[in-house]
Amino acid sequence: MAISKETVLCEEYMGKFPVISISLKGIHADSYETARELATRIINEEASQKQYLLESDRLTENDKERFTELLKRDMSEAALYSSLRELSQLLQKHHDSKVILLIDEYDVPLAKAFEQGYYDRMVLMIRNLFHQALKTNDSLEFAVLTGCMRISKESIFTGLNNLRVLSVAEVRFDEYFGFTDQEVRELLEYYGFSRHYETVKEWYDGYRFGNVEVYCPWDVINYCDTLRGECDALPQNYWSNTSSNDAVKRFIREADDGATKNEIERLVAGEVIQKEIHQELTYNDMYSSIDNIWSVLFTTGYLTQRGRAERKKLCLAIPNMEIREIFTEQIMEYFKETIKKNGNAVNAFCDALRNGDAKEAEKRLSDYLRRTISIRDTFVKKPMKENFFHGILLGLLGYKDTWIVSSNEESGEGYGDILVRSDEEEIGIVIEVKYAEDGRMEQACMEALEQIESKRYEEKLLQEGIEHILTYGIACYKKRCKVVLNVDGHGEVTGETDSPCLSV
Residue 123 pLDDT more than 60? Predict the structure, then answer.
């Protein structure tokens, strides 16, 4: 409705031009043949909305036969290539006005083709379609193409020399890529959710387009819809429901060198990284190097700019809590995969816990985990930090086939972090995890042990007839940890106060 206030713009354009509007998002297929069929149907559907052309007294019978070809499901490849140009010409002839062409998600077919192995054939199809619609089309007033990746001109845009590219780094139209802060405030107030403003900002704000910081519209709208059904609903990761997160997954798995791992740690901690961004990539180049993946993460919204360092270098950061959660989830998934490759080390850690050797358990835990990407603590609140380390321990303990590991199970007067039952012997283990905000890990371990005792977390195991129960307090702070075993109601300190801590 705000557009209607731009009266000069509306008088010049509104209702003055025939429009062809298509989205290529639906071209998602495991073979080229199926993809071409889907592309044909998109043209069929757009043409079917303009069947009034068959009644036009400005079109000849030959023109109408050409239009009828656009409605056929068995359209030839040559007819598909020229379809948008043909439709433009017929619309111009009927309306006596040039055509505006809108193509949304232009890069999706290329992404799917790359994943499924028919990329070169899809490049040829899209290139021919675009060349005829955009280059040799005298009936075109102008066209707008939108997508995530700024595909290299050497691929689908060969021969098109009149493109005006507006990327996320450009100032022009910057605020229109998302919701501004003022718009979000007004939207929350309208629905009576103003008290959720800080949560919405923390989770869904942070994207910088040009010189403006914006919120992700999809997330804000979905969270407001969720709040309408449950007024105290917690924020969710709506992004994951619309994306495979393949770029982050590949990034985590290909970060082999120490420098890149350190950069990931800094990003997740809320810091800024300077990187040279290459926005014109082919899909064949996207994952060919870790440097190119940085560019992919930026153009697809997993990273955003926090300013420009040099002409080609940008300052990059994770925009908000939602995207940070995607990074940590992928790091955790990768962590679980590496557990299977280091069975001996994980077994040694579990055996140390079973044998009551807190010092060895701490050493094994540190030695095993410090070689991988760590999650630092500066970005999130204490409960979330504890949850992360909690998840790490669950992954390690779950490696033992003969152990039954439960998380947050009701026992005694509360819910213990981790309870372990051993099938092969009557041994139980109770673990309480603490994050030492002040770095006093020994004290945090003692608090954990006191909580186990006061809340009687071992009661569930006792009720099951397990008499030999070991209770541990595990505290973490940044990249250090401490493991303390309770011995006759007293903590047995390991003596390793500065050992490297849980890292992923």
Answer: yes
Give the integer Cα–Cα distance in Å for 372 and 369: 6
Give the Cα separation of 406 and 179 in Å (integer). Answer: 42
For residue 278, report the phi and psi dihedrals to the nearest 5 degrees. Answer: -110, 105
Dihedral angle sign, alpha carbons of residues 251, 257, 262, 265: positive
For residues 204 and 215, the answer to whether their CB atoms sit within 8 Å is yes
What pLDDT, on the 0 to 100 scale, is given for residue 166?
80
Q: At what angle are helices 119-130 and 77-95 packed, to 10 degrees?
A: 20
Q: CA 451, CA 449: separation in Å to the nearest integer? A: 5
Taking every pair of Cα atoms in the chain, the longest distance, rounded to a whole number of angstroms, is 98
DSSP string, 145-191: EE-SS-B-TTTTTTT--------TT-STTGGGGSB-HHHHHHHHHHH
| End-to-end Cα separation, the chain, in angstroms | 48
Burial of residue 55 (number of CB atoms within 10 Å: 0-12, 13-18, 19+): exposed
Q: Read off the tokens for 324.
A: 């940070």
pTM, full prediction = 0.77
Q: In sequence order, what are the beta bridge partners of 294?
A: none
